[in-house]
Each structure stands twice: as structure tokens, then as C-alpha cells.
Design brief:
Length: 260
């Protein structure tokens, strides 16, 4: 399988997606759409009632992903109507009707994916990359480099459901620190807060992620993995599905052209 902006390698029934969109793996319209396609292609290859897992990682140990490429609106006139987050040039926040948003669709695809998913957080993880990472079942983070930070409160950005996955995965106090304080978590802090399941030095990070995938890949064999995951994050699944597919209901508030 060949895709732009990332590669896929297969080891048995474990697929590793390596993000390679220079310089910081920012998510744009085509990358999100291709990631959704890749997940569907992997699902098709694995079939039903089989073991399997997907790992998502950065290509180096400086960046995992630094969020959304909001500058795409300058060069791609179809970015707004094709479902990517539009950019407001207004100095104050304004609400913009959108048909759908492709990052929520990517997150919904992960939440509905019938195999275990592991995010190997190789480095800095900012903005929209945080719910992207949280949508994975397990997270392993670099113990010596990189922050995990979701700063919409500092950028004046909101869309319905932005906090639903944070709340479902992390709970009240940690969710508050993530969403309302925009705290920059180191690997150690992220582990203590329960944002990630393990931390590892860079040279062992990929191996640890593979060990997690090997341990849990068999849990998909009975065909109920996605259904049971959905029980744990029911509200978030509903919110992201609604944003992705209910045309005309999405609203986005953005201040300025900062990257999220």
C-alpha cells in the first residue's frame, strides 16, 4: 500500500503507519482523507474475526504531529468545502458553518476501527494531534523529548464535541488541565496523568509500541472490539460522528491563523 505523507509497513497482522509530512506532520485535508482510506484498506486486508492491530508513529523523535495545517486554506480553495477546518482571518472569533470536518471523521474512524490501535508518540504533539492520539486505544510516549499540549483555549477555537474525547479518556481534573489550561505535559507528566500508558526512551519506543500491539492484537478475533470500545466512549463517538456526517450542523470558531 502506497500513500502520500505516510508509509505503511506490515509485520504479521500488525500494521505500522509512519507519518512523514515534513516538517512536523501537520494534518491537512488530503493527509486525513488518506489516513481514513488506509485504515479502511487495512481493515479490508485483515478481514473479519481475525487478530490484528495498527500502530501510528512519527518518523523521527522530535515530532509526532503538531496538529492541523490551518494555512491550507490559503493555497487550497476547496479545503473549506471539502471538510477541513477553515481559517478565519477575523481578529475576533466567529462561527463558520461547515459541511463536515475531516479530522473528526478521522477520529471517528479510529474510534470505530475493529482492531486495537496504538499511538507511538515520538515527539511533540500539539492541538488537533492530541484528540488524534487519544482516539487510539493505547499510547506510548517518548520519555525524553516532546510535549503533549492541546491549546484551543489560547487560540480562541471551538467546535461542538472538542472536549468529549478528552473527558471520556482522561476524566475531569486531567481533562480540565488539558482543555482549559493548555498544559504542556512532558512524557513523565503524561504518564502520571494517565494520558499515556507507557513511556520509553527513543531507542526503545518503537519496540515498546510493537510489544503492546502483539499483546492485544488477538482481542479483535471475536468481532466485538469496536462495539465494546464504543461503550467506553459512547458520547465522543456520537459527537464526532455527528460532526463528520450531519451536514450543515457543524460550527467552528477560530481566532486568527494560528496552527492548531
Amino acid at each position: 500500500m502506497s500513500y502520500q505523507d505516510f508509509t505503511i509497513d506490515r509485520t504479521g497482522n500488525i500494521f505500522t503507519i509512519t507519518l512523514q509530512r515534513a516538517p512536523e506532520n501537520r494534518l491537512n485535508l488530503s493527509m486525513c482523507q488518506n489516513l481514513i482510506k488506509a485504515l479502511r484498506d487495512i481493515q479490508s486486508q485483515l478481514g473479519t474475526s481475525s487478530s490484528g492491530a495498527v500502530i501510528t508513529r512519527g518518523s523521527d523523535f522530535k515530532f509526532f504531529c503538531t496538529g492541523l495545517d490551518l494555512d491550507e486554506g490559503k493555497t487550497n480553495p476547496f479545503a473549506q468545502t471539502d471538510g477541513f477546518f477553515p481559517v478565519s482571518t477575523s481578529p475576533s472569533p466567529r462561527r463558520i458553518p461547515i459541511l463536515s470536518t475531516v479530522l473528526p471523521q478521522l477520529i471517528h474512524t479510529l474510534l470505530d476501527f475493529p482492531f486495537p490501535t496504538i499511538a507511538v508518540i515520538t515527539g511533540h504533539t500539539f492541538g488537533g494531534a492530541c484528540p488524534f492520539a487519544l482516539a487510539h486505544d493505547y499510547r506510548v510516549m517518548n520519555d525524553s523529548r516532546g510535549f503533549f499540549c492541546m491549546p484551543p483555549v489560547d487560540l480562541g477555537l471551538h467546535f461542538p464535541g472538542i472536549g468529549s474525547l478528552v473527558q471520556a479518556k482522561l476524566g475531569g481534573r486531567v481533562a480540565r488541565k488539558v482543555l482549559l489550561e493548555a498544559h504542556r505535559f512532558t512524557g513523565k507528566e503524561a504518564l502520571e496523568a494517565g494520558i499515556v500508558d507507557q513511556i520509553a526512551p527513543p531507542e526503545k519506543l518503537v519496540d515498546v509500541g510493537m510489544q503492546v500491539a502483539e499483546r492485544w492484537q488477538g482481542k479483535a478475533e471475536h468481532g466485538v472490539y469496536a462495539l465494546l470500545r464504543g461503550e467506553l466512549v459512547r458520547e465522543a463517538v456520537g459527537m464526532f460522528k455527528g460532526i463528520s456526517y450531519v451536514h450543515g450542523d457543524g460550527r467552528l470558531a477560530v481566532a486568527g491563523r494560528e496552527k492548531l
